[in-house]
Amino acid sequence: MQAPAPFRVAAIQTVTGTSLDANLARADALIAEAARGGAELVLLPEYFCMMGQREADKIAIREQDGDGPVQQFLADAARRHRIWLVGGTLPMWCGDDARVYNTSLAFDPRGERVARYDKIHLFGFTRGAESYDESRTILAGSTPVSFDAPCGRVAMSVCYDLRFPELYRGLAGDDGASLILMPAAFTYTTGQAHWEILLRARAIENQCYVLAAAQGGKHENGRRTWGHSMLVDPWGELLAVLPEGEGVVSGVIDPARLAEVRQNLPALKHRVL
Q1: Eight-state DSSP code of residue 178
Q2: What is the per-residue pLDDT for 162?
Q3: How confident is the model at residue 1 (pLDDT cuts 50, 70, 90)?
Q4: How many structural domains is the chain composed of?
Q5: Catalytic residue selected from 58, 119, 134, 151
Q6: Of these residues, 159, 208, 244, 246, which one is catalytic?
Q7: Catalytic residue at 46?
Q8: Is 119 an active-site residue?
Q9: What is the CATH number of the domain that holds 31?
């Protein structure tokens, strides 16, 4: 059986604002840039479609499953550019008038949806005047999700999930995932302290690539996000990184590199628990 070919991926970094139309237009331009660069899979960041003045603003643009302008935008862009496209997150109806699911959707090059993941772990942080509690406006998902792409098994996750390694162990299965996706809007405070460390740890312990697409800058609503979208290889090496501002980070998922790391240090086979 012939080994899979190298597979180019890209992470898009945005500084999302309060206008849905403007955010989608900017995302469209960056997706096109990534596709022109040869990306076969493109990952958008968490909240790529909206970062409102208030946390509750996302409720106003929530969509029913399978219907809505953001979902249509993602399907159209995937089909138009013939790419695998993962829409960081968008707000989806959850049956609660005061909350939404924070949902990541994956589309194949035909524009057909192949996976939906509702963020499981909800962020909460308080230090001085800085305070966040996602549970006020978001309902947690409950089901880990992965899907198959030409590069192998792809594990889905969102932002705060990064701090929970057991999620990825469960998604990896016996053979391991080839790629972990991490769309995020890490705060400047927590990102500066832990973002790179955690991304590299997840890559090392799961012996796979990690593609992280982040929000990166000062937003209209006053929030500042850490950025540093990146691609990490199975040995924990940084292959590409964009510190701040809008742009595209890209690199290659190399099956030979995956095999080399797992053969030299067969930690996945040494698992006991």
Answers
A1: S
A2: 98
A3: very low
A4: 1
A5: 119
A6: 159
A7: yes
A8: yes
A9: 3.60.110.10
